[in-house]
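Q: TlpA family protein disulfide reductase, please. Structure only.
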Amino acid sequence: MKNLRIWSLLCLIWMGVLAASAQDTGKEKISLGDAMPAITLSSEIYGKVTPADLKGKVVLVSLFATWCGPCQIELAEVQKTLWPKYKDNKDFKLLVIGREHTDAELKKYNERKKFSFPLYPDPKREVFSLFADQTIPRAYLFGKDGKLIHASIGYTKADFQELMADIEAALK
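A: Structure for TlpA family protein disulfide reductase:
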């Protein structure tokens, strides 16, 4: 009987740990109104992006991983809806960043996916860690003043529509 109680207690503790970790969406490191972290991206394919390149632009930072299901849905929507609408707008910059991926991995991934927007590597989570500790996909929209105006975790159609409206408003 004593062993059964110990076993039951251990199971309850373990279930609590699992439930807590499943609900953890990662610690936010930036909030609405905060300035965009100074990031530099380097890609052998797409070149280098520095903070100076982003100054005065509406910037969408999209953090993803190639193995992430919701990321795949979000990026497909970016390819279908967002990128065709804003790719030629000189006041807009899209930064799609592969968390823990190299240029070579992203090149191979894009050979399958055929995305027409640039994919930037973040093999050591150096950029990702400026925004959060975990959980993808994540989208951060910064206005022309460099301040955060929209943030989302995960992907829903409603969140994406809100993001599109926020981009449109920020570009006016």
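A: Brief note, in case it's useful. DSSP finds six helices and seven strands in the chain.
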